[in-house]
């Protein structure tokens, strides 16, 4: 079971040239924000930054907006 106080909810807004991710905690406080290129070679750095920002006991729950398939390669 998830501990709400140790959970971040990460939403990724996809666009043609850039994706933007924002993580919030259960209290709706922003914890992490990052914009990345849509080039797949940028995705590992995004994942690394996200995990570095969160503590080791934080659970990450991700949601991906996928309008017109723009998030397909990130998914």
Helices, strands, pairings?
Elements lengths: L6 E8 L3 E7 L5 E8 L5 H11 L5 E6 L11
Please explain how this structure is put together.
With 75 residues, the protein is mainly beta. It is built from 1 helix and 4 strands. It has one helix at residues 43-53; strands at 7-14, 18-24, 30-37, 59-64. A 4-stranded mixed sheet has the order 3-2-1-4, with helices on one face. The radius of gyration is 12 Å and the shape is globular. The model has no long low-confidence stretch (mean pLDDT 94).
Q: Return Rg in Å.
A: 12 Å
How many distinct beta strands? 4
The biggest sheet, with number of strands, parallel, antiparallel or mixed sense and barrel status, is: 4 strands, mixed
Poorly predicted sequence stretches spanning 5 or more consecutive residues: none
Strand content: 35-45%
- First-residue to last-residue Cα separation: 24 Å
User: What is the chains' assembly state?
Assistant: single chain
Distinct helical segment count: 1
Report the principal-axis shape: globular
Provide key terms for this protein.
75 residues; mainly beta; 1 helix; 15% helix
């Amino acid at each position: 079971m998830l501990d709400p106080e140790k959970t971040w909810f990460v939403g990724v807004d996809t666009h043609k040239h850039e994706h933007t991710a924002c993580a919030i905690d259960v209290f709706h406080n922003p914890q992490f924000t990052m914009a990345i290129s849509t080039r797949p070679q940028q995705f590992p750095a995004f994942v690394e930054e996200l995990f570095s920002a969160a503590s080791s006991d934080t659970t990450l729950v991700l949601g991906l907006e996928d309008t017109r398939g723009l998030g397909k390669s990130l998914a």
